[in-house]
Structure formats: C-alpha cells, structure tokens
Amino acid sequence: MVESLRSVVRVVNGVVTHEGEGFQVRRPFPTPALADFDPFLLLDEMGPMSLAPGEAKGAPDHPHRGFETVTYMLAGRMDHRDSQGNQGSIGPGDVQWMTAGAGVVHSEMPAKELLEKGGWMHGFQLWVNLPKKDKMMRPRYQEIPTERIPKVQVDRSVVRVIAGEAFDVRAVIETRTPLLYFHVTMAPAARLQLPVPYDHNVFAYVTGGRGRFGAERRVVTEGTAVLFGPHGADVFVEAGSSLDFLLIGGVPLREPVVRYGPFVMNTKDEIAQAFADFQSGKMGTIPAERA
After folding, report:
1. Could you tell me if residue 280 is inside a domain?
2. Residue 147 class from Cβ within 10 Å (0-12 exposed, 13-18 middle, 19+ buried)?
3. Segment 154-212, tens digit of pLDDT
4. 12, 112, 182, 246: which has the fewest Cβ within 10 Å?
C-alpha cells in the first residue's frame, strides 16, 4: 500500500574532496549542505577509479575515538593495521567494521600489488556514531570476507545483507546499536519494496545507474544520497536501465554531537581529553609489521 511507503524528504549530491594521502572521494555528508544523518556521521565513496602503478594512496597512521568506521570494498584491496594488534586485508566484496570506542590508532593503505601494478579501486567508508554509554568501550575489530556476507534474490534484484536483516536473511556482523546496511543490485525496470524498521533513520546512496525512489517515485542518479522520512514500513525502488545502491539505516541516538577531525564525542571537554590521550600515547601505537 502507498501509505506504508516512506517518502523522500531530501536528495543530496555528493561533493568531491580528498582524504588521507590525497585520494579522491565523493561525499554526500558531512558537507555544508548536510552535517550528518543520525546516527551516521560520514559516507565516502572511493572511486571508481583506474590507478596507474604507484598512484594508489591510503590513510596512514591516524587515531579515532567515539565511533565506528565501516569499510566496504567493491574493487581493489586495502591493508589494515591498528594499535590493538589487528592486521588484515580486504578486497572485492569484503567488509571491515572497526569500533574505535575509547581510542585506536589505525592505518588503511593500498595493498602492495595494487600500489606496484595499479588497477581498479572502488569502495566506501561509513562512520557510525556510538551512543554515549559506548564511546569509551574497548575497541573491537570485525573483518568479514565476501563469502560470509549473506545475500538474497528477490525477483530480479539481489540484496547483500552487510548489517541488519532483509527478507528473513540476517547479517553476520554484530553492531552496537540496531543498524541495516544493504548493497542492492537491480536489473533494468525491476521493482522492489524493502521493509525497514519504523524506528530507523534510512537513506540510500546510488552507486551506479538511476532509479525512482520513495512514494513519490523521485528520480535519482549516481553519486546522490536519498534521505527518507520517518514514517512508513517500506522503501520503494524502481530501477531505470540498471541500478546499484546502498541502503543504510539506524536508530537515531538523539544525543549531542561534538566532532573534531578523528574524534566524535558529546562535549568539547571530551574532545580535548581525546587529543590529550592521543598525544600522551594512551591510544597506543601500531606494532611493527609482522613478517
């Protein structure tokens, strides 16, 4: 029924900017047009881009406190190392879910083969805010290979369930607060109604093609975020010639957000303490690389 469909309240174009060592990203938020979308703080799309040998760049050692970073790769490979001793590598279809909590220093750098030989790079990083009660929790790291991420086919659409649940298929990733993170691929002219929890803020980010979204059938194209209103049990989508998008949602925290660079807390004093703890070494250092 149309009454059950969520409406589109805003469409936000991604802004091109640079991160880390200077790699280019497309970012729907935070920008001057949209600071955040509670509980989400940032979404960056890396690529898609073809890299020549020596051209790949990453994000060398840097700290985080108070939130989670979620890296999802479609092409290319990134290596992760952090001050908790975690070390891993994610490639096409893999997900890295890092809960910074009280503080962690980490690096995300292009894999040696990508750096030396070049190749395609395409991925996403999402920042998820932590509630006040969890901001100083012990850091946690989850690395999920593509073969462990469940997917479900609905008519002529495929939904990869990275977090949350879709059509009775549940993700393997554990989240601190209720979240959903789906990667949806639709055949030309396919239609889909995706059930979403009533208490979630929900948005879509179009990664390829074009489609119609929401009760209004709003036309949206690649590189654009679609913010849905709070009422309705389903998100309606109709593909154009083809359509590829992320659907992301979570229970809003409705808490004060004070952010400065790599730290996101509830007060300015907590931000000042985060800088002091990092500078004094309390967030640790990344151990020497294992052979």
Report:
1. no
2. exposed
3. 999 999 999 999 999 999 999 999 999 999 999 999 999 999 999 999 999 999 999 99
4. 112
From residue 261, give the alpha-carbon distance in Å to each of 62, 66, 105.
10, 12, 13
CA angle 205, 210, 216 (to 5 degrees): 80
Q: Tell me whether residue 255 is in a domain.
A: no
Q: DSSP state, 275?
A: H
Q: What are phi and psi of 38, to 5 degrees?
A: -40, 125
Encoding tokens for residue 168? 């009775």
- Tracing tokens 């996101």 back to the chain, one arrives at 264
Structure tokens that stand for 253 in this block = 């925290």
> Measured on CA atoms in the order 222, 224, 225, 231, is the torsion positive or negative?
negative
> CB within 8 A of 154, min separation 6: which ones?
167, 192
C-alpha 192/C-alpha 203 separation (Å) is 15
In sequence order, what DSSP letters do the residues of 5-26 get, joined into one string? BPPEEEEEE-EEEEETTTEEEE
Question: Over the stretch 118-129, which tens digit does the pLDDT of each residue have?
Answer: 999 999 999 999
Name the residue type at position 187: A
Query: Within a 10 A sphere around the Cβ of 54, how many other Cβ atoms?
Result: 10
Note whether residue 55 is domain-resident.
yes
Q: Is residue 43 part of a domain?
A: yes
State the Cα–Cα distance between residues 121 and 110, nearest whole angstrom: 9
Q: 64 burial class (0-12, 13-18, 19+ CB within 10 angstroms)?
A: buried
pTM here is 0.95
- Cα-to-chain-centroid distance, residue 176: 15
Domain that holds residue 106: 2-250
